[in-house]
Amino acid sequence: MIHQAKKMIEQDDKAAGSEQLGIKRVCIIGVGLIGGSFARAIRQAGLVEHIIGCGRNTENLKKAVALGVIDDYSQDVSEAVKDADLVFIATPVGSIKAILAQIKNSLKESAIITDAGSTKVSVIHAVKTIFGYIPENFVPGHPIAGTENSGVEASFAKLYQAHRIILTPLKQTSAQALSVVTRLWQAIGAYVVLMDAQHHDSVLAATSHLPHLLAFSLVNTLTTLDEKQEIFENAAGGFRDFTRIASSDPNMWQDICLANKHALLTHLDLFSSDLDALREALKQDDGDYLNKIFTRAKASRDEFMAKKPT
Amino acid sequence: MIHQAKKMIEQDDKAAGSEQLGIKRVCIIGVGLIGGSFARAIRQAGLVEHIIGCGRNTENLKKAVALGVIDDYSQDVSEAVKDADLVFIATPVGSIKAILAQIKNSLKESAIITDAGSTKVSVIHAVKTIFGYIPENFVPGHPIAGTENSGVEASFAKLYQAHRIILTPLKQTSAQALSVVTRLWQAIGAYVVLMDAQHHDSVLAATSHLPHLLAFSLVNTLTTLDEKQEIFENAAGGFRDFTRIASSDPNMWQDICLANKHALLTHLDLFSSDLDALREALKQDDGDYLNKIFTRAKASRDEFMAKKPT
Fold it and tell me: What CA–CA distance (Å, rounded) separates A87 from B146?
């Protein structure tokens, strides 16, 4: 059963944009911050005619229709993807394999499948396992954007503007499918970067997955202390920002950590080894060593900020 | 030699406020973010008649006069504190002992000495070493406020508004000195909290010093990787916030880490031990354990944010 939005938004502007890409009907699986923001942006840009949403949380889907983010929804994923020209999977990476199994036989032959999974090797592996091969219309993707909030109410059309989208096409991926997905992201203001999937996972382990693990771990350690109450009461802005990512969705991050386990362990071990050296220097009152590390870190971070002011 | 500001600001309003606290002349040693913001705030509140600055960087002091943050300056610290009713030491904790040695014989007998050192046990130890006893007019303090920026140009009058100021008075501290310092902070919009010095150092090690050490260490580790360039290019908002404190002043943080070495090592070891357990769970694909840690961390962090929205 497909639940229709009562009030349809005018279709004229959208039809004009959609013909260029040949994408009329889009199915978004997982209408949260990522899927919802994608839906809002492609709708606002007039790129598609119809957006159907799919997810497990009925209340969230109803909200998404009420907010005009999607036109209608189905909780039967194999029904939701029928007739879709493009399927965007924006659920936690651990759920993607099961979704693929359910949609495999309902997809239009020409349907493009793309995703927003935070790890890419595991998603590609899931596709290979379920389909038995890599479909040429499959374009693995990962938008480098987000906030610590979740759910369709946290979504907003500008989330991807001036943000990077990493696509990790395979040798089987068709140039046509890659081009459509690239132009779709570009049309909503994002920059597309192509990368090898394994390399993506290594880079993201360093810059995103490891920081999340450390933030979760630190906040957890502090909650176990007797002084817990006072610790949080006396925390300042530095602590608030350092731990912002510890407010992220635990289920999503459980999935990401497990899916990118090997790259994450590699970077975690490098980090721990360097941290041990810093600990030893501190123990030995080796101020010069501390200063060298702090100075190098500050220089890198300041350089990074100078290039990325927003 | 004292360098006068060419244009003096009207004194009428200030005189009215200053009489209540009996503080006419204030000497600020270290006119950076912390000292400069304190000067701006007490001047704006009309609490004092005259503010003299002292520091090593002549350019910074000249800027402070030009900006109206201080009335004049001297780079001879023993001269700067002469006739001051209150001396506010806002330099990195590692420099406080040497400053105390220089000002010891120039202070007015009634002068109140307070500081903004991020660690308190080490500052108290320095006072005891230099004076041979704890002067009753010494009120150790630590404002829980700041940004990652430094220098007088980064200072602003509202820095302390609605922020905590921890004072760690000793049994020798006079109620009169404690009262004046407390009311001075309150008058510029801060909340004063009293705490035992050792307890302060433990709480701050957890909530501030350890996060700084981790942020510096992580950014340093990433700079040593071959993928360094790509890692920073593909970093998102989460990384930016997590590493904000790694843009802090390396000299100041070298001092803090060394000054609070024992409490910092204790918390670092707790953190490392918990992180090792998380690593082991990840290695064993123990998703339930990861989820438990992440969920507890998110709950604590969300609770902290609900109480501290700004």
Answer: 47
Could you report the predicted ipTM of this complex, rounded to two decimals?
0.84
Of residues A194, A176, A124, A184, the one with CA closest to residue A160:
A184
Q: Does A282 touch chain B (CB under 8 A)?
A: yes
A207: nearest CB among B147, B234, B251: B234
**What is the C-alpha separation between B235 and A203, in angstroms, rounded?**
9
Confirm or reject contact between B232 and chain A (CB < 8 A). Answer: yes
Q: What is the pTM of this model?
A: 0.84
**Architecture in CATH for domain B3-195:** 3-Layer(aba) Sandwich (3.40)
Across chain B, which has 310 residues, the per-10-residue mean pLDDT values are 52 48 94 97 95 97 97 97 98 95 96 96 97 97 87 96 95 96 96 95 94 96 88 85 92 94 96 97 98 96 75
The DSSP result for A52-100, as a single string, is EEE-S-HHHHHHHHHTTS-SEE-S-HHHHTTT-SEEEE-S-GGGHHHHH
Q: Residue A166: phi, psi to the nearest 5? A: -95, 125
Closest approach of chain B CAs to the CA of A300, in angstroms? 7
Q: How far apart are CA B205 and CA B30, in angstroms?
A: 23
Cβ neighbours of B91 (radius 10 Å): 25
Summarize the confidence of residues A113-133 as an average pLDDT. Answer: 97
Token digits for B302?
Answer: 């969300």
**Domain residue ranges in chain A:** 3-195, 200-307
Distance CA B157, CA B191 (A): 15
Fold of A200-307: 6-phosphogluconate dehydrogenase C-terminal fold (1.10.3660)
Cα separation, A36 vs A159, in Å, equals 10
